[in-house]
Amino acid sequence: MIIAIDGPAASGKGTIAQRLAVRYGLPHLDTGLLYRATAAALMGAGRDLYDERAAIAAARGLGLTEFDETMLRRREMGEAASVVAAMPGVREALLEAQRAFAARPAGAVLDGRDIGTVVCPRADVKIFVTASASARAQRRALELAQRGERADYGAILADIEKRDARDSARSAAPLRAAEDAVRLDTTHLSIEEAVAEAQRIVEAARVRA
Ligand code: DC
């Protein structure tokens, strides 16, 4: 079973994907990390973030380098990832690895922006997770504060709105729900409620299959 979870930053898609993976005993790939790692490799090599040729080379060389997940999850890395993720050549360079991950015999759970539309258009289950920008900013602020990072709500909200705009407006695999995705709005849901709802969506898809 392939489960595709898409949605904007801090919508809860990562946690939902992780929990579904445990529940169904499937491997999980957070595809945002690939874009974050590409941006980190580029910056680590001292290259300009907007240098598309260097970004493509960084994406192709990803497997060769080890990255620190805590560093990749920092706020500024999300912003940098969103820049390289708008480059068609970078997306293409990362596509095969994502599809290979999804092709594992038992299936997999992948979360990102274009899993249901581009990476796994034939996924068994597609969930598009949303939440209001203010709810997402509050969650992100809390998460950063818990990690000991500075968490200014206004800056985080502005960052989320900027990233939404960039991820949705780009021409290469923009953030949008697949036509056959089930929408899950988590604005007023606790994480437990959101996971339970996602599980109901998976179970309903299994009954239909
Ligand atoms: O989910 P995240 O915040 O870790 O993602 C970081 C950036 O990577 C996000 O702004 C857009 C990009 N991304 C993408 O374009 N496609 C994906 N499948 C996953 C992430």
CATH C-level class is Alpha Beta
Query: Helix content range of the residues, please?
Result: 55-70%
Which small-molecule species are bound to the chains here? 2'-deoxycytidine-5'-monophosphate
Strand element count:
5
- The CATH homology group name: P-loop containing nucleotide triphosphate hydrolases
Largest sheet: 5 strands, parallel
Low-confidence stretches: none
What structural class is derived from the secondary structure elements?
A: alpha/beta
Could you tell me the radius of gyration in angstroms?
16 Å
CATH architecture: 3-Layer(aba) Sandwich
Cα shape: globular
CATH fold naming: Rossmann fold
Mean pLDDT: 93
**Number of domains as seen in the coordinates:** 1
What fraction of residues sit in β-strands?
Answer: 5-15%
* Quaternary organisation of the protein chains: single chain
User: Strand order across the biggest sheet?
Assistant: 2-3-1-4-5
SSE diagram, text form:
Layout: E1 2-6, H1 13-24, E2 28-30, H2 32-44, H3 52-60, H4 69-72, H5 75-84, H6 88-102, E3 108-112, H7 115-119, E4 125-130, H8 133-146, H9 153-169, E5 182-185, H10 191-208
Parallel strand pairs: 1-3, 1-4, 2-3, 4-5
2'-deoxycytidine-5'-monophosphate (DC) binds at residues 9, 31-32, 35-36, 78, 81-82, 85, 112-114, 163, 167.
